[in-house]
Amino acid sequence: PAPATFTPSPYTSGAAGAARAPVDRGATQNAATIVQRWEKSAELTTKQVDIISHLSKLVADRPMPEGLENSTPQSGDVTSHVDMVTPQQFYHWYLSLEEGESQEEAYTSVTDEMKTYRKWCNQLLEHTEAALSYLKEISVAHETVNSKTGALHQACQTLLGQEARLVGLATHIAERLDIFNELERMTRRFNSQALTVVDDSFMPLIARLDECIKFLETNSHYKESPTYLIKFRLLHNRGLPLLKNHIVGTPKTTTTQILTASATQPTGTPLDEDAGSMQYIRFKALGAKLRPLCRELENRASIKEYGALLQDCHAIYFQQRSILLSPRVYATVFEIGKIPDLASMIRAGCSHIIDVCKQEHQLYYDFFERPTPGLRAFLEEFSGMLYETVRPMYLHNKQLDLLCSLVDILR
To answer: pTM, whole model, 2 decimals?
Structure first.
């Protein structure tokens, strides 16, 4: 229990020596709050307020009890201590203890609550610091993974570049090795009994052979390049004679067959027009077969071997056409030369030579695509036949009008 000395209350009698401890400001505010809540929860009506005001006026002049007039504490005496003498003083002392305890309980509860909040805040700070530590570790690990990923990506890019370079190099080497590997395949093809010039694969085989020879001539520094070049040229020398024999031999064979057929016919002579038409038709059909091969020769005419072979083909062609056509043209011109009228004779002879030249010009382009000087010389041979026949006749003619008409006909 508290000591027997107490703080006098301003509401107790001074004569009795009763005293009351001053109420703390916080407790006063708490009491005021309680009063306000009470006022709000138990609000009085206007009539009730008037009654209370009337009662207040009636007791306003109530006299102080005896012995309490001088018991009001003076300023500065609120902390003085008095002894308990009467039950009234004990009662006031007990009330002050209860008020103090209630205030202390409020402070204690608030303090406990603040301690709990502080504990929670400390735990929250600890969790926050742990989370920040984890985040920092994750950030460091992320940077490490990022750097390693970048290094791995760079290494992959480098490897891909090296792979592309090696693949390109391997392809480049394979393309060049393919030239050397072609030798065995081409040798088997040329040794095959089934290989003929009319095969669709013959000219592609010759073209590939030309590519291999050109490659080895350009890259003579490759290992064993001279040896392979010799072998490819040997194959080339085997292929070109086959091509030449076919292009040259076929017109010869056709000419021989035509001459043989003409000789066996009782009425078949070079003067026979039907025989001449058949000769033209057979050579025209032959041109459709030989034209692809002749075109390949013309495309490779810049190469010495192919240029010489093309010239041989031209010579054989004109030779065979001359064998078949010259006797017929000469005989026709000879018959025309028997016409007594010189102008009519020249007109008929020129018409016939022009028809022959047109047919032969068209027939030549059924075999070949490009012109050659031999074509002009070949056609001039037929004009020379007419010239040799007509020349003696107009040299002996002294009629000027006839000579002028001949000039007009020749124009």
So the answer is: 0.56
